[in-house]
Amino acid sequence: MSAKPKYDEIPEPGTSRCTKCGQVKSLAEFKARADRAKTVYSECLECRNAYHREWQRAKKLERTSEQIAADRKKAREFKRRPDQKERAFDARLRKQFGITAEEYAVMEKAQEGLCLICGRPPQGFARVHEGAEPVVRRLDVDHCHETGVVRGLLCNLCNQALGLFQDDPELLRKAAEYIERHHIGESRVSSFGTNR
Questions:
Q1: pLDDT tens-digit profile of 82-98?
Q2: Are 40 and 32 in contact (CB under 8 A)?
Q3: What DSSP element (H or E) covers 141?
Q4: Per the CATH hierarchy, to which homologous superfamily does domain 81-181 belong?
Q5: What is the dihedral of CA 31, 35, 37, 41, to 10 degrees?
Q6: Whose CB among 22, 65, 78, 168 lies 3.0–4.6 Å from 5's, allowing a Cys bridge?
Q7: How far is CA 192 from each of CA 79, 142, 172, rounded to the nearest angstrom?
Q8: Per-residue pLDDT tens digits for 155-173
Q9: Do residues 42 and 19 make contact, with C-beta atoms less than 8 angstroms apart?
């Protein structure tokens, strides 16, 4: 007969005994509980992970490939529904920028659907998953990365350009001066490499 671990022994501070394998391990080897401060689950990570791997394997064996394909198709159709697209868009705006889809629509209408920098409508199509219908791109929400304040709606190219220039007005002015100084029509080598 194998000897059972003595559970009446109290583990040293900073350790705990796994209820599955019976070993005393460091608290770092246990998953912290989100529902209770400064406590860990009773099973060590090794035992918990082994249990979850086995549970997932058993669940996969229960489902047929036809069921998996049907579930994927159902999920794709659900995501394509216009009401779901709008709900997802609203949720993304709230999470990323703290505005609602209604506030976005008001801004878009005030801008007449045009970029605040170049004055053009959004260009091209948004990235889509294989087999999905292409979606016309919306204007991007431009915001200050330091304060999080929404500044307006821009086309994707202008929004990316601001990001590449790190929202630095001085850097943007230098870029504008550079473009003006080296405008088409001037000699190809005029003031090449100088800061005049």
A1: 788 888 889 999 999 99
A2: yes
A3: strand 140-143
A4: His-Me finger endonucleases (3.40.1800.10)
A5: -30
A6: 22
A7: 53, 34, 20
A8: 988 999 999 999 899 999 9
A9: yes
